[in-house]
Amino acid sequence: MSLVFKSKLLRNEIKHWLLVGSLAIWGLTASLYAFSKSEKLILVGIDDAGVRLITANSDRLLQAELKSFLKTFFEYYYTYDEKTFLDQIGHATELMSDDLWQRNKDKLLELQQKLQKTPLSQSMEIETIDLLEQGKIEAVLGLKVRARLNEQKVRLKVLIEFKKHERSEKNTWGFEVVELSDAVI
What we know:
Elements: H1 2-6, H2 8-36, E1 43-47, E2 50-54, H3 60-78, E3 80-81, H4 85-94, H5 98-117, E4 121-133, E5 136-147, E6 150-164, E7 175-184
Helix pairs in contact: 3-4, 4-5
């Protein structure tokens, strides 16, 4: 044993392996600790008042985001012509739940076929948006439908049910539409 501590070569080798072992234990412990922590999403809001962390669902920035999401969805779903229909509806369906898309798929494809036979253009203006209850809104839209020289104005009452959704590359909003119904008023 005294030979082990007198030899400089063996002392350096022992120090080397103690260092490697302790660094390996530290790395393993730090990695396990990092993986055990649950992921926490931090939302930072930037507006005219400055920058702040958003902690409550009632924050006015989140309300503005919901309003902007609904405006975007309405623009995609109700503004089109025979040339832009597939792109517009494609963007709108990215904001829908898979279940709603499957239920409306046939109706939208049929509408696309009709547009190819009789071209028209449709534009939309939002008249009102009202929050009925958490996750449900009612909107009144003014539609202008132009077919050749004819222009027809239609008021539409739209009921939308939405829910929070994880943000993705295709749907950058924190919401998705799960129910959609409209009726002429």
